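Q: What does the assembled structure look like for these inputs?
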Amino acid sequence: MKTRRFLSAGVALAAASLLLAGCAGGGDSSTASNQTDSGGKITVWVDPPRVPAAEAFKEAYPDIPIDIVQIDGTVGGQTVRQAFANFDSAGQGWPDAIFFPSNDDIAWATNSTSNYAADLTDLLPDVVKGYDPAVISFCDIDGQIRCLRNDAAPDVFWYNKAFFDEKGYTVPTTWEEYADLSVKIAQENPGKISGFLGDAYAVNRYLQAAGCPTNDRVSESEAHINMDDPNCQRATDLLDTMQAGNALSTQGIFDGDAAEAGANLVMSPGAVWWGNYLFRDTWKIPAGQMTAVAPLKWEGDSKPSTGNEGGGLWGVSSHITGKQLENTLTFATFVATDPRWQVDLSTGLPGYGPVQEDWLAKIAGDAYFADIPTTQAAFKSALGDVQPYSYMLYDTGSVWTQTVPSTLIGGGSATDAIKAFGDELVNQAKSVGYTIVTE
Amino acid sequence: MTRLTPEPRVVGSSKWNPGRVARIVVMSVIAAAFLLPIIGFIALAFGSQENIEAGRSGFLGLAGMSWDNIVYSWNQITGFGPGNGGLFQQWMLNSVIVAVGGAALALIAAVPAGYAFARLRFRFRKTFLMATLLAMVMPNTVLVIPIFLEVSAVNAVGQLWPVAVIMGFFPFGVYLSYIHFMTTMPHELVEAARIDGLSEIRTFFLIGLPISKQAIALVAFFSFVANWTNFFLPLALLTSSQQNKTISIGIQELIGASPLFNATVAAGLDVKLYLPQLALATVISMIPLLVMFIGAQRFLVRGQTIGAVKG
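A:
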């Protein structure tokens, strides 16, 4: 009797739950087919550092009604993706424009399930044209520009000019020279290091710079990953040489105790934002020491190859039309191109070309770098040297931090570490639904 | 004068012996294992990042405590947000609104429902009771997506009232009330009321409610705690609203904006949220729970005996 009661209660509860889900399940997941128009009001989602961008827009365009929503900016966080999954189910609720907390977010925002990010190729052709092709390539999904870069973050080659001048070292111009010199410096100056391997961007600094296919999007469901590729091998050899010569730190650049190692950094590939954020503000390296030169070449290559560390992305909703879309495009244009945000307020090198000179001019005013004209030229030239890299549904940086530092700390070689990284990367790519191709 | 209640009998030995010493040592170690992290955490809220980095905070961080640190940390967490900040205070206020509103609705629904299950006879009563028990053990997360779709269907995503309404669904409160009325309200009392001509509703209000202070306090307390600490429901329903988030998801945003966990994001902020600031925000977020606990303590202690003795 009790069992029957339990069963009937369970059935009643299940039926109620199904009814609840069923009643609400009328959401249209076909997305763009039902574009709406609010008549003008727009809603934008921004992470905390991008709130000033939205507020600058509000001040510049007081006639456009705007709701600014500050979202959780955790890089690699799932909050935004979960919210969008709910919106996709409900068929409504998406923001009109968003600053994606993680660049990887563009992968799910453009897949056929979500299809949130609008194709901006024809909506904002003049803005798109203002970007260096290498800078906007991260937004190029199957030939459509699905986002706008907020800032560009190419890796330049940083070195401590004061140290080099004092010791008489020559700044390397190739990756191979960099590896050899790093070992020599470590031998002659114990404790001095030439690179960090423990943070998520290390994969960009070395593997992306080598052209190693870790993030090569073949199609929505296919990823090209091949750690046996000669380009991966040259990066592995480089790191093996440097690791064996005690020239690398297994710490990450963001580690709380990285400042001590940072003070001993004599050279490294690193993003343009390393200058102010890491060297000046975090590691407190005195002015007049650090400076940047153009990225390095691989021996045999005709031009430099470098990676990219971050540089945020703006997306526009594909679910809107009319005045709402018009105002949202005005917003996207403002935050991507307007000097009132990009030059006056933003800390990163603008991705949009026409405002880069004004931003670079601010470096001279800061008077922090040892050789300001060379640093300015390096920032600009590096933009076109960034190697292709697709943001995917798997988080390459997390796979790197989970595998490489632990393998190295455990006594493994760089070869062992990158092997472990490659194996786990393939596992994670498969787990999120990709078919792996090696050619 | 006759003493009505005898002195409580002192139990246990007052003499020291190895067994007693061993018991005290074991209990002290276990107590310390729980207490020390709490003390350290509160001390952290009074600390400074500079002292922590320099290793000057001493044992459990007690050496680095100062009121100035609290003032600095308070300014940092209240400065978080667009313009001049103020999101933290808004999150706290929102949490109070949904937690109190949800608890009030839970009381309005759960106490009469518990009474009905305990003292009324109607078709499918036991089936409904079983369904209540099953709903009680069902994880909240299971229902978050269908609930989101329901709320979206009435265009109320991002508003506080649906969160409070959904929090008012509190099957544990129904069960607690059911046990209370089963054990403290004899059938004879209900029968007598009926013979005296009271309707069922008047019987509940005039007989049932006056003897239910403990049950009401318990339902209110547990409901408030569950609402205050609810994470998934506000996350699903309030993420799209700048001003209507609650503290449970707000704390996560503070962590996401800390240089310790998200260095590149934190680099673009005027406020700096290190461990002392995050600890202070968490400690402040616990204060309403402590106030609620202290307020309901008398009823909570007495209420532990609900169901212990059949009336």
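The mean pLDDT of chain B is 87.
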